[in-house]
Each structure stands twice: as C-alpha cells, then as structure tokens.
From TrEMBL:
Transmembrane segments: none
Keywords annotated in UniProt: Signal
Keyword Oxidoreductase: no
Domain of life of the source: Bacteria
Native species: Limihaloglobus sulfuriphilus
PANTHER family on file: PROPROTEIN CONVERTASE P
The name this protein goes by in its record: FG-GAP repeat
Keyword Signal: yes
Signal peptide: 1-24
Phylogenetic lineage: Bacteria, Pseudomonadati, Planctomycetota, Phycisphaerae, Sedimentisphaerales
C-alpha cells in the first residue's frame, strides 16, 4: 500500500509539472471571464469538443489549409436542440502538437436549406478541389456542393438508391453510417451500415423508458427487448456523383455483427503498399473494427478483426460510440484516425505495425486539440468548484456521461482563474470509471457505457481534506476517502454508503448535496419515490434516515413528472447563496423535471424550455424532526432572462470564482461546457406556475401521469368533434369497453394498448406521427380498432402490432398495393391480409383485413 501511495504522489507531481509547461496559458489570448459565456480553457491548445451534444464527423477537405504542406480541415454535423435543425460546421487545421495530434481552430458555420428528411453522411473532395457532401433519406442520395464564397452547401442532384433483386426493387434504408472507397476520381464503392431492427422489440407497450410500468429485464435479468445487430453493405459505381449503383451486397459476415450500430461514421484507410483501400468502422460499445481489402478495384474484405493498441489488447474507446474518419499522419501520410464520440474528439496514431492477425496497431494519443477552446469536461458534466490541491485557488472537479471524474487545475490566480486541460482522477492507479454494463442501466444495455458520474466534493471524513461522494447511472452512493495531503490528494477506492444495513438507494443520476446543517453532516439525495430526502451521517460509511425535506407549505419536494428513466437526474447543491448564514438548496434540472410538484413545477410548467438551475431558499426554520424547511423554488435570471440550458440536466454551484467577494453562479451544461454568470447579473424570479401542460392528452383532459389505466379520459359515446393526442413518452392502456374520437395522433415514444373486448373507434384519421428513430405504436391484443384512415409516417420504429383474435378495419384504403421497404411497419401475429401503400405525401397507408 505504501508503495502505491508513493507512486500516486509521484504521479500528481508529474501532473503539476505538465500543467506548468504544456498547458501554460497563452499570453496572447484574453482569458477574462465573461458573464453569460462558457469558461475558457486556460491553455493554448485544449481538448477538442464540438458545439453540440452528438457531434458527427462528415469528412476532411482542404478549404483553408494547403494540401502541399498542411493537413486537411474537418467538417462536423450536429442536431440543434428544440429546432431539431441539422447544423454543419467546419474547423480549419491550424497546426500539429508535438506528439502528432492535429490542432484545429474555431468553428465556422456552413449554411444549407436541405429538407429535414435528409441527413448529411459523407463528405469528400475531388481533384478539382470541389467539396461534396452526400445526404441520405430512405431510398435516396442527395448530393450537395460546398460553395466557398457563400459558405453554404448547395443541392445538386438526387439519386434514387434501391436494391434490385430480380424483378423486385426495394429502397435502402440508409439510416446508418456511409463512407466510400475511391478507386479513382469517379469509380468507388459506397459502404453503408444497416441495423437489423428495433432496440425495444415487440413489447413496445411495456418498453417506454418513461412509463411507470417500464419493465426492461425479465426475471432472469435478461433484456426484454432486442439487441439489434448492424452489418456493412456495399454497392459499386463507375461514377460516385451520378451512379448508377450496382452489385448490392452484404460485406459483414453473419457471425460478425456490431451490436446496436457501427457509430456515426466509418472510413476507408491507407495503411501503406497493398493496403491503400482497407476499411475501419466504429461501434456503439467502443471497439474499432478493421476490414482488410483483398481487391484493388472493389471491396472484398477478409473477416473483420478488432484493432488493438500497442499492448496487443483490442481497443476499447474511452467513451461510447466511437466513429472514425481517416486523417493523414503529418509525417508518413498514412491514415491516422480522428474519432468523434460522446464528448471530446480523440486522436489515434497508426504505429506502422501489424499484430499476429495482420491487423493494424493504433495508439491513442489523447483528445484532438483546438486553439482558443472552451473548457470542456466531456458531455453532461456535473461540476464542483473546490481547492482540490491545497494551493488556495479554486479548481474544478467534474463527472460526465462517459462515467469519468476529471480534475481541472486552476493555473491562474485567485482573482483571474485559468483552468488547465482536465485529467482523469485515479484510485489504485486506475481512472474512476463507472460503467453500468448489460444490466446496470434503467434504460437497458444500449447504455452499457454511460456512467453519468455525479460527484460531490466535501470533507466528509472531517480530516480537513476534500473527499468525493458519488452517485451515477447505477444509483449507488460511493465514498472515495482522501488519504493524501492537502497538496497531494490521494483517493481510496469507492465504498458504498449504508442506511439500516442496506446500501443507500434512490433514483439514478443524482448529485447528492452534502454539508453541515445544525452542526450535523447532512447527505441530501432523491429517494425511491423521486423526492428530496435527507440522511444524517453516523460515521464515514453509515447514515441515519432523517426523512423527506419539506417546503414552507408542508409539501414534499418532487423531482420529475416522468417515471423510470425520467426519474432522478437532479443535481443538488448546498450553498448559502443569499449570505444569511443558512445553507440554501440549488437544484440543476432537466427538460422533464418538475420541481417541487409533479403537477406544477419547474421547468415543465413553463413549457418546452429546457434545463434550468433553481434556487430554494432556506427559511431558517427547522421542522419537528430537526430538518431545514425550504421556500418554494425560484428561477435564476441572467440579466432579467431565465437561464435555459438545452435538454439534459445542468449542474449549478455557487462560488466566488473571480475573488471579488461575491458568489457567482457556475453551471455545467450538456455539451461539456461550464457557464459563468457573475453575481451582479443574477436575480431571482418566483414565476407563477400553472398546472403542467398535459403530456398525455385526450380531449384536453389534464393528467399528471404517463400511465392512465385509472384515468377517465376516454369518450364513452360517439363524438365527431373530439380530437386526441398522445404526447411524447406516454404508455397508455385503454380501459373503457368502447371509446371514440374524431382524430387520434400518437407521437414519438408513445404507445396505446387495446385489449380483449375493447373497441376504439376513430372517426377520421389515426396517425402514428413519430419522427425518424422514434417509437410510436399501437398494440391491438384481442380488441377492435376501427378507423377511417390509418397513417404511419415513415420512421424506423413506428408500428401497429396485431395479436391473435384482434380486428383492425380501416375503411378508406386504395386497392393499389405497393411494397414499402423490406422491413415490417406492421407485425401480424395471426393470419391476416396486410397491404401497404404510399400516398402522395410518402405516408404509409396500412390496410389489414381480418380472416
């Protein structure tokens, strides 16, 4: 143990030395904190992070850089929250780090007016210096050309993309990654990823991650849904810009799928003589996969192998969904890999070596870099501001969605902070890394790599050193004891906290609030009813149940209006914001939070406004149990406007970060950045809340649950004027024998169950209007569904499930039958005649005839 301590002390000393040299602040850059803006990174070059939550590499091109002497620029796309518009940016190459990593500049936004149904997938540059981007929709390739003068992508051509087998032609789905192996200026192989199906499986009515009967695992702990498998396919063309595309074929072996998906991007690679046209794909769960091409003028790969690191072990990327593109090595010109994923972009260098399986060996150099970057901590950071290393200056400790805990040292001063590039905090020589695995996440094995670490830093043990208390996606509560010194912190491995002999339990992804109240150490979290709950410290690892906290109106404090995966997620913090000597409660919320009441709370009652930091003032009074009583929540305002921060939870802390004697507000937001709000720009608003806008509606009946088998909100008699909408994330059971409405629309992630002896009549239109990649479903299990028109908008997973003994009778259906994609939008579990037809708007009209 003593030897281990010595090694860690040396490690921390080396880190300090690195901070003082490599990450020294750039004297030419203005690093003054700007209120209402993200904290800047303190070094000249910092980890590269895109502007959105899911940033996807499209490809490389020489736009500002010189192909004779420089390396290429990169293009990235992401989806803007709330508008759901696809944004495209490019970053100029600006230099090389000493270890070979590329350094990029600031984002330059690219305009386009491409319809939403298309997604940009693959960008390339021809010898004529023109830059092209291929966009996809089901059965279509849309080509655009980059206009350097207007900084815009302009539409040039649309090509139908279908698989012809004999006399049959079926559109290709094209929802996965797309790349190309180029033979010359025109001839190429297009390679694309296709997934086998629906993650939730056929049990859609029970598989909504926000429903209160969500039951993801069976009695043996096995996922009730499916684990889709993704395979690579290819087509050949003599002209990549015009087609036609022939020789449609499956590339992946049946025995070598990628679970869930191949990531957002795949890439052709040049690994030297005889390997100029090989291929690399990513995977959701973290592997990089190699395909050795045996052909000079086609793509005929050997079986897939996993790419190893220098240690000979298959690479497991630091975070979820690694999606590679080839990036030329600055010395050899061979293909290094630039990898987008959740959080930072990473850089892998091709070592020039191959392992015993003839697979290229890649070395992870670390994050790609950016000049004049924002300080980022990976996605969904959960921040703490604390003097971690005893130098009198506030540093930042942050968790993130990949499950790490990071340390950013303040290399500035007490009044002018500058933050070094974050490094992982380690215990027992290994980085803290929470990984839920197959069973650990509420939302299923798709989230096996999302740890959602939520650290709280406090002197829990009372030895004068900051410890870390941590919860995460697995909803455990762990203590990492600081066994080092003030200047050289050293953490033990994480050990669970207990209450009444049971490991402390509650809802997931919650940052606990920790602090001294009335000379006792308090631990505040969300309990199993998703309400704010206080525990008192007995000793370092044991807690006493203090009870639920109350407001001055005697009500408990709810967290969310959703269930299952929609619970938890709050980021709690004790700080005396108003300086009255009593610790107030700061709460970071998400889009679906509803504090302090499921029926009436922030931010839900304000509409679709996004995550918000809240202030709950400590009234200064204690209840009969000795617990503090808090006033109703107020919203933080920045220069008179509500602070709204995208969708996922934000993490607020109060800190005098600039040393002016006033508490400022810092808030971690989902893209990885830390927003700074100066004290003088902050006010509070006790916004008057109305009841929550119904998230599941029927005839405008207000409801507060996502599961409605006890709600009387179906019409009992025919009514030609009533319209009904199942809003997002609803799982609804029809409980009346007969129900009627004029029009019914079911939106994304929502489902309706019609059971035996139940009848639902929809006088006009029944629409499953899910956007792409979202589930909308109706399950007819022994019941009867009558409607005039049944519309399913094209999407991955919208479906009708008809089980034995059920009847579905649309009236107005054309006799013309067309085949629509080689994939079921309807699942029939008994003998029925099913016909599909595309209408003028490319909606799928479904007709089901009973036996």
């Amino acid at each position: 143990m003593r030897r281990l301590l010595t090694k860690v002390f040396v490690f921390m000393a080396l880190i300090s030395a690195v901070f003082a040299t490599v990450f020294a602040a750039d004297s030419k850059r203005n690093l003054t904190l700007e209120s209402g803006k993200p904290l800047p990174a303190g070094g000249k070059a910092a980890p590269f992070s895109g502007p959105g939550l899911g940033n996807k590499l499209l490809g490389t091109a020489y736009v500002n850089s010189n192909p004779e002497s420089d390396r290429p620029d990169i293009f990235i796309q992401y989806t803007e929250h709330f508008s759901w518009k696809i944004k495209i940016v490019y970053y100029s190459f600006e230099g090389n780090h000493s270890d070979g990593r590329a350094i990029f500049g600031q984002p330059i936004y690219v305009q386009h007016d491409i319809p939403k149904k298309y997604t940009p997938k693959y960008l390339f540059q021809n010898n004529n210096n023109k830059v092209y981007c291929i966009w996809t929709a089901p059965g279509e390739l849309l080509y655009t050309t980059f206009n350097r003068d207007t900084l815009a992508f302009e539409k040039t051509e649309i090509i139908k993309f279908a698989n012809k087998t004999g006399k049959q032609t079926s559109p290709v789905k094209l929802d996965g990654a797309l790349a190309a192996i180029r033979h010359n200026e025109k001839a190429a192989e297009l390679i694309f990823s296709v997934s086998t199906g629906n993650y939730m499986g056929e049990q859609a009515v029970r598989m909504h991650t926000r429903g209160n009967v969500f039951d993801p695992y069976d009695g043996a702990g096995i996922w009730r849904g499916e684990l889709p498998k993704a395979y690579l396919y290819a087509v050949s063309t003599d002209d990549i810009l015009k087609g036609p595309f022939t020789n449609f074929r499956k590339i992946s072996l049946d025995s070598q799928p990628s679970y869930l998906n191949h990531g957002w991007s795949n890439t052709a690679v040049n690994l030297g003589s005889g390997r100029e046209k090989d291929f690399v794909s990513g995977s959701v769960l973290g592997n990089l996969c190699y395909y050795r091409n045996t052909s000079k003028d086609s793509f005929i790969p050997e079986p897939m192998t996993l790419i190893p690191g220098p240690d000979g072990i298959a690479i497991r990327h630091p975070t979820v969904n690694p999606s590679p593109i080839a990036y030329p090595n600055h010395k050899t010109g061979l293909s290094d890999l630039l990898v987008s994923c959740e959080g930072w972009f990473y850089y892998y260098q091709f070592t020039g070596q191959f392992d015993k399986n003839d697979t290229p060996v890649y070395k992870l150099l670390g994050p790609a870099l950016q000049h004049n970057a924002d300080l980022t901590f990976g996605t969904l950071p959960v921040i703490n501001v604390v003097d971690w290393d005893g130098d009198g200056k506030d540093d930042i400790i942050a968790g993130n969605s990949p499950g790490k805990v990071l340390f950013s040292k303040n290399i500035g001063t007490e009044t002018t902070p500058r933050f070094a590039n974050p490094v992982e905090i380690k215990t027992d020589g290994k980085a803290i890394s929470i990984q839920p695995g197959y069973r650990g996440s509420i939302q299923g094995p798709l989230e096996a790599r999302w740890g959602y670490t939520c650290p709280q830093v406090a002197d829990w043990t009372g030895n004068g050193l900051p410890d870390i208390l941590l919860s995460s996606s697995v909803a455990e509560h762990l203590l990492y004891v600081n066994m080092g010194t003030a200047k050289e912190p050293l953490l033990s491995s994480g050990q669970p906290l207990y209450c009444k002999g049971m490991p402390l339990f509650g809802t997931w992804r919650v940052r606990p609030a920790v602090g001294e109240i009335n000379e006792k150490m308090a631990y505040i979290m969300l309990d199993d009813q998703d309400q704010v709950h206080l525990y008192w410290k007995i000793d370092n690892y044991n807690l006493e149940d203090g009870g639920k906290l109350r407001l001055t109106d005697q009500n408990y404090i709810d967290a969310n209006y959703r269930y299952a995966g929609g619970t938890g997620r709050l980021k709690l913090q004790l700080d005396d914001w108003d300086g009255d000597g009593h610790k107030d409660l700061l709460i970071g919320t998400m889009l679906e939070s509803s504090v302090p009441s499921k029926k009436r709370g922030f931010p839900s009652s304000l509409g679709n406004v996004g995550a918000m930091p809240l202030f709950l003032k400590n009234s200064g009074k204690l209840d009969l149990r000795g617990l503090p009583i808090f006033e109703k929540p107020q919203v933080f305002l920045f220069k008179g406007e509500q602070i709204r921060l995208l969708i996922h939870s934000c993490s607020p802390v109060a800190s005098d970060i600039n040393g002016d004697g006033k508490l400022d507000l810092l808030v971690g937001e989902e893209t990885g950045r830390v927003m700074f709000y100066a004290h003088n720009d902050i006010t509070l608003s006790g916004e008057i809340l109305s009841n929550i806008t119904p998230h599941c509606e029927w005839q405008k009946t207000s409801v507060d649950n996502s599961w409605h088998n006890n709600k009387n909100w179906w019409r009992n008699t025919p009514d030609s004027s009533s319209n009904a909408t199942l809003g997002e994330n609803c799982s609804v059971v029809l409980t009346k024998d007969k129900a009627y409405c004029k029009n019914l629309s079911i939106k994304n992630n929502s489902s309706l169950l019609i059971s035996t002896n139940q009848i639902l009549e929809v006088a006009e239109n029944l629409t499953l209007a899910a956007p792409a990649h979202r589930n909308a479903s109706i399950v007819v299990d022994g019941g009867i569904l009558k409607t005039s028109d049944l519309l399913i908008k094209p999407s991955d997973n919208s479906r009708i499930i008809i089980k034995e003994g059920s009847i579905v009778t649309p009236k107005n259906i054309s006799n013309k039958i067309q085949q629509y994609i080689n994939e079921s939008l309807i699942i029939a579990e008994s003998t029925k005649k099913i016909t599909l037809e595309l209408d003028r708007n490319d909606h799928v009209v479904v007709s089901v005839s009973n036996i």
